[in-house]
């Protein structure tokens, strides 16, 4: 191993060689600036190069940041790798895992053995169980009628399955017990199968949300439910989840009755529809949810096909706009119990923000629109095969170096690519901070005759999969400005509410697939997220699913859900008096 | 009125005239001894007659008891009428009513009115309800999905229906709310419809237990359930109850959804079968019930057709043999909280006894057999039309004066008639205390050639409805001895357990239709119940149904149910070392 490493000339290669995959789309030329690392003992490497001084900011250089492709170790070197420098597929769902929650699910298995009741004893078998456990347990009715199967007249020996204060099954054998966590996204539904004794994730299954046929987005589904009732939407999601549960059970040879709990998260509309509640009040001011607190519902009442006595726990939502996905961020990061100030950003069609610490938390929802997911842009697309997901522009030629999903020929630009593109256009000077595209004579910047708009050609049609030039237009830039402006307005108003500054933020958590895949430096450059030192920024991945899993596995965290919700003040941005001024101000690029 | 009264010659007539119906089957001849009253100011009436001295015991005379048919008031007279002297249809279900329970059902109705939620408020409608009530209520899932119907966007105005800590309905209007109490007897099922706000009984409906087709008695139904499963029996009782609920609702123009709770009592086998639990463990030693504690089950889970979010409360049973009917006696009488010693006797096929006070209670079940219900006797019959229910034998002629149910021609003898008959045979000297029928030359006492048994002719065939002499035989007497011996053995063993004597008993409660209809004096004479002064003996009527109604209407009593159960020691008579000796000793008539 050492020999192999010794032959390498730069730190980037060494890291790749030992299995740490670092981003570098410019081909290790010191141009794209993706491969940043922090050197703890600077004397162990060559001096900072001229190229690095061009790419890195003064603050970055002061804090020891180097581009790993230009670092040559001279002796044993000690480095810190920012999360944002890791290749996307390697990024860690940070604290959700690193917090190392204690595996203590609400579903408990308890083996008891009771000798033959004494003649003349007036106690029932059920009372013997409680006496043995020194408890006052109740028993679910569907379980009660199975008690005879567990009673043997010489000895009462059984494995009790207990949820909270209720017996929900009596098992003869040492069967394993399972749980299910469901993340009900507007677009995608993900179901995780979890071993409740080890906490291990056995398997995962996902489908497109079957409600798609009633409307692609939340608004159209709410409209459908107001016109035709919520029943169609409700049954389609329940049916979809049941189908996935069955698939997971079949594939893993698991009896559906050995699944005793399911936890579910979703945004507020998905939450109401899952519960078969018409989301009418979410669609009219003041957007009051019917119910927000966490719920425990018998699986049979919701028609969820796990053990009929099992529990379905629906995680609480925070307000009419901020759902359980945001709660997932809080559970995964522990934001709500830290002394330090943290900001959590979950960007989708709406951006949900939470800012605060254990003493006070404020949250808001920003109407970012779909631009940051690639929507509403001329060549925007979802993050699927052929989407340009990261990009670097050569300053002189304006040629683009980019990476597409699956390394296919480019078909369009997805969210993370859009952010890179804008940041690079700013860097190479073909976009000013008002959002105007600046012509410099390069053929890639041109005026489109059909719409009289300036546009920048990202890739020529010969090299694309769609037979058209892939461009970004002035109106695309405007969409992106509106989106990032909405988010930053939210951040600024929340900061004002707590009377703090950007510098007071100790942690910035980026949630969702989006947060996981964007180039953090570029997101800062375009002013989408506040300018905060890299080491304070962490991607928390799929916070919604993570929250559902944490809730399934941790009794302690479950108990905290409703407490967390109550501690958060929801700020309705549109009703803040300085909203308009803040918003207009936020449209500019930094 | 006074004029009318002044024309009457005796107290019996006066009492009947003012509406107090006193028993007197000998035609006011001072012979049957049924019309006893206690005169508080003896000087206000004529002196005790010779006839009364023949009929009354020395103790009765000493305590001021007279036969009202032979009392002529001389001035204003103050009397006490023993419960046992009232005509059967008038007998009061004493303390169940006289305790005057507070009407405070577990189902509560709570009107709330909440103004339009403020814009920017992060609370859900559900939270507004809890804030308004300063509570932490939960909501039933089936109710949650109806919440939208109750939400008006200007004001949230609704009548909440609450059970324990859970909202189970939201009513727009001031609809009335109802409850149901069910007494599941082996033979008869009675359903009471109760107004939950006033506590008034609206209506009552009864049917023969539809399980009859699977077996007439408890043992045959248990056998059926062991062979073919409990499902048939369970569904037939649930179906029967649902049918009666529907009938009651139709007849009283009540929406089935306005019934929010049902309370149910039954003996232990009826209890298990109602719950769909195979009563196997009740049929084998040590006769341990599967569950004894009180249960609350969602109506929809039990398929009881009241409001689907409503509660079905199944009262606890005391042991494998002592059911919720006996608990009814305790609830109705308050035995369990008195300082005085009380004995409760509930006689059916089994006799259940409870003896004790607030400090200690012991209970047992006595295998009395069906003789005291008219079963297993040559001319025994259930208490239906044509049954001789009370009887008086003229000492010289041995002619019988009797009363039949509905005053029909006699068809047989029911329980209360059997007790009278034996007591009268003892009194007139044609039965000795060993149970031997004594011939005295009267043609009514004869030897039956076909079975070589002595028998007494109660009525000649010419006067019966069945064209046969109605007789009581030596073997009938034996059956009655076994039955009353079983009861008295139980009483004696319980007395020994508490180390007290008959004289220490301050109250004797007789439960059940049987306890309500027997001639208490005669029951004492034949040694069926202990010899206790009449004023200490009270009929508590249908204790099972009474218990179910009390449980429905009184939150306080409901809470005490499981506590009462735990305070009772169950004595398994057959395993007591002095059982055999006691039993043989108890066979003799006093």
UniProtKB/TrEMBL annotation, chains A, B:
Domain of life: Archaea
Cross-referenced InterPro entries: 2Fe-2S_ferredoxin-like_sf, 2Fe-2S_ferredoxin-type, Beta-grasp_dom_sf, Corrinoid_activation_enz, Raco-like_middle, Raco-like_middle_sf, RACo_C
Domain 2Fe-2S ferredoxin-type: 1-85
UniProt-recorded Gene Ontology molecular function terms: iron-sulfur cluster binding
Pfam families linked: Fer2, RACo_C_ter, Raco_middle
Protein name per Swiss-Prot or TrEMBL: Na(+)-translocating NADH-quinone reductase subunit F
Organism: Candidatus Methanofastidiosum methylothiophilum
